[in-house]
Amino acid sequence: MAMVYADGVLRVERVGPPSVVRLAGEVDADNCVHVRSALDAQRTGYAGDVCVDAAFLEFIDVAGVRTLVETAGRMPSGLSVVVRSASVELCDLVSLAGWDGAPGLVLEKAVQR
Prior knowledge:
alpha/beta, Transcription Regulator spoIIAA, six-stranded mixed beta sheet, 3 helices, 31% helix
């Protein structure tokens, strides 16, 4: 596990193998630049889908979702940004923003217990 960014609100880690970007805490307009940086490093440094572990994500705003969508849009043909353990709230926000059909963005819903 490699810490990419951490403050009192958000932790961004690279875990693996296979390499995954884990988001823990809250992603908002103030810190989404750090998420973008980690996703771009993953996108350019790994020849596969960019996987995001959202299991520990407590909150994400529209700026954070836009970061995921924009990264997905820059993926090479046939590759995706795959968000694992996406909460119902995250899936709803993506849908409400009209990004549920965004090319290259795949949301794998969290298992409800």
